[in-house]
Amino acid sequence: MTVLNELPYSDHVLHLAPAKLPSAAPVLKSAWTRHVLPNQPSNCAASVLVPVLDHTHIDLLQTVVPSLQQYAGDSCQVNVLLVVCARQNVNTTRVKGAHDSVRIIQPEVQLRWDACIRYGLQQALVLDSETPHVAVVAASLLPLQGWLSGLVSDLQQHSNASAVFSKILFVNGTVKAYGSRFEQVYDDYLARQVVRPVEMYAGYPWNYGPTMKTMAVQAAGCSAWLMRSSGVNKLLEGGGFSLSLGSYLACSDMALRLHQAGRTVLVSPLSSFIDTATRTQREDPATMQTFEQTWGPSLEAQYVSGLAFNATVTWVMQCGGPEGSQAFNHVQHLEGQLRLRAQVQRGWPFCEHPDVLQDMPFSFSERVYRLRRLSAYLPSDIVIHHKDYRQLAAWPWPPNNSSAYLIGRYSWDVDRVHRQWAEQMRNEIDEVWVPSIWHATSLEQQGVQAEKIFVVPNSVDAHFYDPDIWDPLTLPQQRRLSFLTSFRMDDRACWQAVLVAYLKAFRDNTDVSLYVHTVPTRNDGWGVPYMEAMSLGKPVIATTWGGLADYIQPDFAFLVNFTMTPIRTSDKGLRGAAWGEPSVERLIDSFKKAYDSKDLVDMGRNARSRVIERYDNEIVSSLVLERLTEITESELSGNRSAKALDMAKDQIPLDVVMCAMLPKPHVRLNRTTPALKVAVVSTAPPRRCGIAIFNSALLEYLQPLLPQGSSVEVFPLIWDTEMPALSGSAPTQRAIRQENYGDYVSTARAINAEGFHAAILQHEFGIWGGAEGSLIVCFAKMLEVPVVSVIHSLSDNLGDPQQYILQNLAASSKAVVVMSESTRNKLGAFHGTPSDNVVVLPHGTPVISAVNPAVAKAMLNLTGRTVLMTNGLINPMKGVDLVLQALPAIVEEFPYVLYLIVGEPHPDCGTPCANYFAELVAAASDHRIVNHVRFVTKFLDDRVLLQYVQAADIYILPYKDRITTNSGTLTMALAAGKAIVSTPFDHAAAVLAGRGVLVDFDSPVSLQDGILELLRDESLMTKYQREAREFLLGHDWRSIAKGYASLLANITMRS
Fold it and tell me: What is the 3-state secondary structure of 860-920?
């Protein structure tokens, strides 16, 4: 399983409290009642295996084991087998309250999960040969009443079923696991797309509709399941639990074997457990690779066979807000039916409107972030643009000139759209999806061709917004009748009219109440909160202005008249438009009618029926799929010509637009001899900058590899005030002052005129001039030689200007170099730049010979110490403070530990970094760790720095910054063959899976656990040291420089 770092995985449970309501949170339907079994199962008996591994909490067994017996169900017999495959000593006296039917079996050697289960199943068949069923239950699970009778009942009622899995709940009552399905995911370890099992309902309420019925599933996790004893025997004979796949994938393997044999796998709502585990176990990537080798081709074939068509669909959406939420709803039932990917510009921590999605079930949000990470290597046949219309030019590829079929998914709440918007819909996109007939009519009146307009309504999940699965809030001062209104106090909201009408309607009544909460305004052109209320069985008071006219009906609504009113607003995009102003008198009348009505329950029932029949997510998703299928059959059959997109309308700085719209001259390939003349534009020493260090190291090894007679000239990027301050020899006249446009022009002319064959541009936001560094695009477009752009950092928080710059730089380059497959995928999947011209050349590293750490320690006066190390320029995002917080518990168990902090405060950071460094020094004076921390702050040359790295036993990267795509210190540690403990920032997550210990962000406890895991297990430390060094073979600077030399030769060669 790939855990997405951008999602707050520790907060995956459903947070139910609406913001700022002065009351208790709503709760799920209060009774976790057991289902009434249609028939009491016969012969309800099972051998129940409870695997005990190294991470098992033995004390928890005192509760789990008796509970398995006590809550099995009426007349059900349980024989518990504790399968002890760990180094822990377990005996029945440690499991208080256990019946005599508890036995302990222990293999002669320590076993991992799969082998432990296989051993336990074999022993169960021997020890309890007459028992009809065998179950496996994880040691962290607490059963609810009837857990065994529910499994046996479903198994007996479905004759073709071989295995039945239980529903697993989080401690707050939301679903943790209820079956898996196979979907495409991007695997960092394998650096490609694969088909893997994903949980379908994590985070949904325990009584969410689809999880309340027995369901045939493709796979499931291994938490709790039951089989007939005869079926277990066949499974083992067929090789079940023999691949060392771990607890997550082993049961997917089992399910696939059963499906292969024509059998069914079920998940049952009749059997439930609460999982008390507080941490998710990270799967070993090697097991993922084994699973892929075993099942990958057949799963891929199965996936392809389930597609409605082969075209690739890209859905461009926001990561939050109403539009993001609606896009999420639409794709809920499309995944797996088409080659779909989501293009979301900003990641979860930087989401435009995270409040909208952070309270939704984990599976709901995770689906889109999984689709976001899918490979962008395939060109988009269809692009659905579900964002602000002014951002359209940022997404289809190449920028401003796309042959993809473009669909605009738009909504608005005024009587007309901006003229630029209407022109875009007429001229730039192929068709428009709008949520209502009212929107369609509005577009036709503004000259948009009727054949371009399709009505695709917004939708809600009627299973989630179901009044039968929620207990109502107990509201303060609640009276006979309660009204709820939601709005935002801005120009678009009619909150004054609501408050005035309510106060006038009920000035003499004391048995009504009005509760005021956040969102709808006059409405967003559709009124999603109305539809959510309708789905929850509530009648509504509403106008029929805008899209509401499509679905608001008098059998469940009190209708309010409106008058068209000119908009008075500072928003230039709304000038000249009008919207519907509700009648206060009709609002008063509607309040009174609702107060007097005896039919509110029936009206609410009608409202919910309307949603279920027409606007449920599944229904609307089928309409979307139907239309997309029509497009692939009729519109994509022939060659499509590219169309220009108007970038000038977009809300980005003018110089970004100007640079992007500059024409690119014809690229000259004028090399007639093997010799190459290469221009390199980069920061350079003495400027203290990581890019300068990288570029100097690269050129040191690149120049000797170029053909005889070749030359390389560096044009350094400098600050405008830097040139007079340079010491030593006279500064070059070929430097580019960062904000001096004339320097870019003169340098480009020189490169074009002086026989250069290629130019390498080192790119990092912050070192190039112009708004957001836009002048790199101007410069690249001025060059008449092939351009190689090297992308160093790829943030997950790019604004619109940065997005355009990256896309136009890539389009203006002959080749784009990134330093990992993960970054290559991210460039396309997150930022809309496919991989046509993207090349992966890893970050180089010096050759570091394998040295016994004891020898290096002796040279540095560290003999006898277990050395932990962090190095680099120190700043608050480095996370060193977290290690100091974790250190007391570590040195208590391992008193010879010494933590080396090698580095000085970052010079570009100034006072904040100096203050942070002082705080570290103060924290290190704690009496518990004062003799276990050493600062090395003097400047170290490469030779001495390498000695310190070689002396380290464990290298620690506790970074707080999630979006570090390339870390030179991590590369050096890998090359030195160090065991590494790191937070999962981008670079670490991509390379350390299976080669190091990944710990949670901002968690001293997680860091402590990760470091102790290595200190306690020398064999694991040795394994990671070996795999780190093996992974970096071929990443030395000379090998990387060969890749650049080959790339330069290829792009300058005449065809």
Answer: CCCCCCEEEEEECCECHHHCHHHHHHHHHHHHHHCCCEEEEEECCECCCCCHHHHHHHHHH
In sequence order, what are the residues at sequence separation of 6 or more whose Cβ sits closer than 8 angstroms to the Cβ of residue 386? 315, 316, 317, 318, 323, 326, 327, 409
- Tokens 């609307």 correspond to 620
Q: Which pair of structure tokens corresponds to residue 612?
A: 């279920």
Contact 615, 327 (CB under 8 A): no
Read out DSSP for 460-509?
Answer: B-TTTS-GGGEEPP--TT--SEEEEEE--SSTT--HHHHHHHHHHHTTT-
pLDDT of 853 above 90: no
| Cα distance between the two ends of the chain | 45
Is 866:897 a contact under the CB 8 Å cutoff?
yes
CB-based burial label for 663 (10 Å; 0-12, 13-18, 19+): exposed
Which tokens in the block code for residue 79?
Answer: 């024989």
pLDDT of 36 reads 54
Instruction: Look up the pTM and report it.
Output: 0.86
Q: Using CA atoms, how far apart are residues 835 and 820, in angstroms rounded to an integer?
A: 13
Distance CA 865, CA 813 (A): 51
The CA-atom distances, in angstroms, between 814 and each of 375, 396, 667, 781, 823 are 21, 19, 9, 11, 18
Higher-confidence residue of 711 and 732: namely 711
pLDDT beyond 90 at 153: yes
Kindly state the tokens that stand for 313.
């669909």
Contact assessment for residue 904 and residue 989, using Cβ atoms and an 8 Å cutoff: no
- 868, 873, 876, 881 alpha-carbon torsion, rounded to 10°: 20
Strand order in the sheet with 897-902: 933-936, 897-902, 866-871, 954-957, 979-982, 997-998
The pLDDT tens digits of the residues spanning 619-644 come to: 999 999 999 999 999 988 778 888 88
Show the tokens assigned to 158.
Answer: 């479905």
Q: Please, are residues 592 and 584 in contact by the beta-carbon 8 Å criterion?
A: no
> Do residues 41 and 132 make contact, with C-beta atoms less than 8 angstroms apart?
no
Q: 476-524: per-residue pLDDT in tens?
A: 777 889 888 877 666 666 778 888 899 999 998 889 988 876 443 444 5
Nearest partner of 832 among 198, 404, 305, 258, judged by Cα: 404
Unique residue bearing structure tokens 């500059």:
662
- Show the CA angle centred on residue 46, arms to residues 41 and 47, nearest 5°: 175
